[in-house]
Design brief:
single chain; 149 residues; alpha+beta; Alpha-D-Glucose-1,6-Bisphosphate, Chain A, domain 4
């Protein structure tokens, strides 16, 4: 059974600036609190990360997984799916960066669905979900607003 999480926020920067930070995988270790290592394993035909391997340390455990990113025809949307992982059976997710206030600000929508290999107790799942959402939304917002003039 999948666990789903969704969140949205507004960022004081353009959608393009948000997209640029979200696709700069090499800098994730600088701002995404639980991400310890990132390696872009393959790139797409435009040079963006296609397959990206992560090592994440959270709740006293280190885990590794590789995601395959897709960008489609909309340059302000990115999605991913798990291609390899040691504790997860499935991860599907998406960021969407929608312009607001004539494109000077952005509404960021985040969605993720996860299937773990081993069932987790409810309180552990809720804690993990809160950390994932914090990184995906609050850490992203802080990073974008700190690097955007």
């Amino acid at each position: 059974m999948s666990d789903h999480a969704a969140e949205k926020t507004e960022i004081d920067a353009s959608p393009e600036a948000c997209f640029a930070v979200a696709t700069d995988f090499a800098s994730y270790t600088e701002w995404a609190s639980d991400i310890k290592e990132v390696e872009v394993v393959a790139v797409d035909d435009t040079g963006r990360g296609g397959d990206v391997a992560f090592r994440v340390a959270a709740m006293g455990r280190s885990t590794r997984y590789t995601l395959r990113y897709s960008y489609g025809s909309n340059p302000l949307r990115m999605s991913w799916r798990l291609i390899e992982g040691d504790v997860m059976e499935r991860i599907d997710g998406e960021y969407e960066f929608a312009p607001i206030d004539d494109g000077t600000r952005t509404e960021v929508r985040y969605y993720v669905s996860v299937d773990m290999l081993v069932p987790l107790p409810g309180f552990v799942k809720r804690r993990a979900e809160a950390k994932i959402l914090h990184t995906a939304i609050e850490d992203l917002k802080r990073r974008v607003e700190s690097v955007t003039p």
